[in-house]
Structure formats: C-alpha cells, structure tokens
Design a protein that fits this description.
With 93 residues, the chain is an all-beta fold. It has no helices and seven strands. The N and C termini lie far apart (57 Å).
Length: 93
C-alpha cells in the first residue's frame, strides 16, 4: 500500500432492515428531566419476529467517562417494541 494511504474496513451491514430505532431518551435522571432513566426503543416494523440475540446497545455518558454495553436477548415480535433502559439518575419523575 502506498505511503499515506489508509485502508478502511467495510461498513457494518444492518442485521435486520425491519428493526428501527423508534425513540431515544437521553436526559433521564438529570435535574428538570421528565424521566429518571435514559432509554432506547427498538421497533419491529416487519411481518416476522426478529431475534436480537448477540445484539447490543452501547451508551456513553456525556462526559465520556463511563461506557455501558447492554447485551440484548430474546425476540421482537412484528409490530412490537423492545425497550432498553440505560443511564439512571435521581432527577426526573
């Protein structure tokens, strides 16, 4: 490879085109927050259930000091959601 050329890995492919991120709430637990916990909602817009075995959701704090990996298990039925709770704080209701 010529000097100054960097090889990049191919981009990751989606595991399922039917699973979408429906909602992300990242202010949970902060002063004045509506909710006490951050969350990610995954939604299956397809016609068949999708296994999330081996998938993960990863969360980093706004300061970059902490990193959390949540391994997902189970399946998401068609037309249903999968809610993943993350960071938790004392603020919110």
């Amino acid at each position: 490879m010529p000097a100054g050329v960097v090889a990049l890995a191919a981009p990751a492919q989606a595991v399922s085109a039917d699973i979408v991120i429906a909602e992300v709430y990242g202010a949970g637990g902060n002063s004045g927050a509506t909710l006490k916990q951050d969350f990610i909602e995954l939604y299956n817009r397809g016609a068949a259930e999708v296994s999330v075995e081996g998938w993960s959701v990863q969360y980093a704090s706004s300061t970059g000091v902490s990193w959390q990996v949540t391994q997902l298990v189970g399946v998401i039925p068609p037309g249903r959601s999968y809610l993943v709770g993350e960071g938790f704080g004392s603020g919110g209701t």
